[in-house]
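Input chain follows. Return C-alpha cells only.
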Amino acid sequence: MSLNEVVSAERLHIGFFGLRNAGKSSVVNAVTGQEMSLVSDVKGTTTDPVKKAMELLPLGPVVIVDTPGIDDEGTLGEMRVKKTKQVLNYIDIAVLVVDSTVGLQDFDREMLALFDKKKIPFVVAYNKSDLFAENVQLDDKTILVSAKNGTNINELKNKIAQAVKVQNENKRVVGDLLKTGDMVVLVTPIDSAAPKGRLILPQQMTIRDILDSGAIPVVTRETELENTLNALKEKPKMVITDSQAFGFVSKIVGDIQLTSFSILMARYKGSLESAIKGAEKMKNLNEGDTILISEGCTHHRQCGDIGTQKLPKWLKEYSGKELNFKFTSGKDFPEDLSGVSLVIHCGGCMLTEREMQYRRRFCEENNVPITNYGTAIAQINGILEKSLKPIK
C-alpha cells in the first residue's frame, strides 16, 4: 500500500439495506455504475454483505456495502439478517431501499428504528418508481428512484452526501502536536506478522502525518535507537515507538517525550480516555479473571504473537495472578461479555472510528473496562503517565 492510498477504515462506509426483491442490489449497481452485486428475481440472491472500495462523486473515497434482505427466512436467513445488522456497527450512513409498489413494511420500520437507535444518518430510496409511486410520503430523507431507468440516481448520491456528517478532515494522528521543523524519531521493530517490505498501517499513517506537518520523521529499529539519538545534532521533539518495545525504548530516551503508535491510534479513534480508565483495572485483577484480547484485523498467528502470547504472559507477570484469556479478531466481537473482567483491544487501525466507538460503548454499557495494547503495555512497564505527557 502506498502512502497516498486511502485505507478502508478511513473511507466513508455506505450501507444499503432493504427487503428481498426491493431492488436493493440494482440500486447499488446503479449508484456505483458497475455490476457490484448479483441481480436476480429470485429472493435472497445476496447472501452475505458485499463490500467494494471505490471513488464515488461527490463523496470521494467510500466503501459500498450491499447487505442480504432484512426479511430473509429460515435458519440460514436468520444468520444472514444477523450479519446485516452487524453492518450497522461500522457504517457511516445507511440507505434503505423500499419497493415503492408496496411501500414501507414492518421490516423497513424496524431498520429505521435501528438507524435512530444507533444514531446513523440515513436516506430512504423508493425504488421502482417507474412502475408505481403513489402514496409515498416524501421529505428531506426520502427520494423516488428507478434503478432500471436510472431515474434520480445522481440525486440519490447528492442526498447521501448531504445527509452524512462531514468527516473531520482536521483529525490528526500526531501532526497537531508538532510544529514545522520538529524532529520525531519513530521506533519500528520489524513485525514478523507484517508483509515483507511493508510497515504496518499505524506507522505509515504517523509518518505521513508528520510529513504533512512539515516536521521531520527519522525511522529506526529499537536495536539502532541509541546510535540514532547520538547521531542527531539536537534532541528530537518526540520518540514514538511500537508498544512491544516500550520497556526497552523508555530506558534509552531519558527525558525525551515518549509515546506509542497504539496510544496515538486510540486518540485518533476517540477512545483514549476509555483506554486510560481501562488500564486502571489492570491494577486490581483477581485470580481467575477472564481477559478478552481483541484485534480488528486477521493475520497468521506466529511464535511471539503480541495478542495471543506476549500480552497474556506480561499480564500474568504484572498481576501476579493466574488469568484466563479469550481472543477475537476481525469483525468478530462478542455480543455477550458475561464473565469478562477486562477487554484489551488493538489500536483499531483497520476498523472505522464508528466501529471502535461501538465496541467502546458496548463495553461501557456492560460495565466492562476496555483499554488498548499501547496503554496496557505502558501500564505494565510503569510508564503510562510518561507516555501520555506528549498528548495531554
